[in-house]
Each structure stands twice: as C-alpha cells, then as structure tokens.
C-alpha cells in the first residue's frame, strides 16, 4: 500500500530527529576529546621559540651550542605528526650540533588555521626556514618532508641532506577533493578524524608501517601523538594529506638533482609503503649514499637512535650492535 503524505512526513521527521540526535552526540564527543587532550606541552627538551612565517606562528625547539654547526630536523607528515618524532635523537645530536626542530605549519604547537594546505606551502616554508632559522645547516627530514627539504635545498644553501625514507607520493595519484571536504566538515569530519587518531588507530598505523618492533613505541610517545591530534584545528592539514593535496608537483629525483650538497638516504629494510627497493633506485639515479637499517620500517631514527646519530655525524660505526649497511 503506498505511503500517505502523513506517513511520509512522519518518517521524514523521525529521520531528521535521528540525524540531529546523532549530530549532537558527535559534537559532544568531539568537545569531550578536545577538552580531555588539554594544552600540548613542549615536544622536546630545549629552548622554545616562535618563527613568524607568513601569518603563522611556527613553534620550534632548539638545543646545543649556537657556535656549533646548525642542524635542522623536519618531522614527517601524518595525522599525528610533530617534532616529537625526534625525541630519541634530539639530545645526542645537540652535543655536536646546534639543533633546531620546528613543528610544521598545521602540526604540533604551531598554528593550525583552517587553510587548504598544499605541498607548495611546505616547500616554501622549508626554503624560508633553511634561510631564516639556520646558517647552511645539515637538514634531516622524514618521509614526505624529505621532498619538501629537497625542494627547499635547491634554492637555499645547505651543508648536506639526510632524508629518511623520502617520498613524493602519498595517498593518491590524483587529489580527491571530496575526501578533503569530508574531513574538513565541522561535525562528520571531526568525528571521522577522531576515529583515525584514536589511540588504537595510531597504534594500527605504527604496527603496519611505522615500527618493526612495537615495543619501541613508548606510552609517552603514543600519548603525545594522541594529544597533538586532538588540538583545535588538528584535522585541516591531515585532511589535505589523506586526500593527496600535499604531494609536490616535481618528482623527488629531479629536486635532488638541483641540490648542490651531499645527500644521504636512510631506509628501514622492512619498510612497506616506501620499500628499500625504492631507496636503492633513488640512490642510483641521484648518486646519493644509501644507509639501510635492519629491523626498521619508516622510523629507523626512532628504533635505532644511537646508530642514526652516527649516520648524521658520518660515523655509522657509532652503534655496532645495530645492523647498518651502505649501498
């Protein structure tokens, strides 16, 4: 029997009531999570500073003797990224270098306005940061930020580049505007992002791609990543990341060809998203040194910090208990 207008009207009212109720629940949960996260503490032990860049307040931590060679540490891009990524090596590196570690715009303790973030924004930021925050530094950069650093180093003077599993491709070969719009949506986007950056969600990503040994993921690091991902505005930069808008326009090997400085590529032998075969191919094409860590995926500097410090200092025998090979 066909539904009468009265029945249809009642069904529509019920549907709207359910939708409003669900939206109310999502909004309530989002508020609770943000409140529970609280303010984000400093990611590293050192002197805190602010770099004013194109309307952003960019937070950074520095340590070491300013008269020592400058070393710029650039964290990778993910839903919960910050300069906390370098916590395991920051202090040791500061014994030989004047170390500067910024939180990229849209991440960590830096400003997170609701912009449409792009790869070109981060390329420009790295070029300017290399010039403004340091004096011909060695630049250590992780994952997608390795491409941004290579681009920046093609225009700004650097001593050398140390790139950790660098890539110029993320989630999609073609940017997906609909996905970015979903994550940027006030209620649904916040709800989906909170699911992605729940502690089980963060651990799932690290288990699949980040760590070869999950015992190396400390409770403190997990807690910090969770808190960082629940700061106001936290989803806007990752929304562009997961939808493919943060990929650089120029291929990584072409950017490295324009860098007038030694380049070291660091890879975890067990990496899957960017396998070590990609590292070998990139090293061959760009005449770069390749250093491969056993028992590591995307975070060899986190899982084998002493040996990584040795690589940066050009002494890979620093920690002989770690299996490290050059190619």
TrEMBL record:
Provenance organism: Halorhabdus utahensis (strain DSM 12940 / JCM 11049 / AX-2)
GO molecular function: hydrolase activity
Highest taxon, organism lineage: Archaea
Keyword terms: Hydrolase
Nucleotide-binding listed as a keyword: no
Stretches assigned to coiled coil: none
Protein name: Alpha/beta hydrolase fold protein
Domain AB hydrolase-1: 71-309
Entry-linked PANTHER family: ALPHA/BETA-HYDROLASES SUPERFAMILY PROTEIN, ALPHA_BETA-HYDROLASES SUPERFAMILY PROTEIN
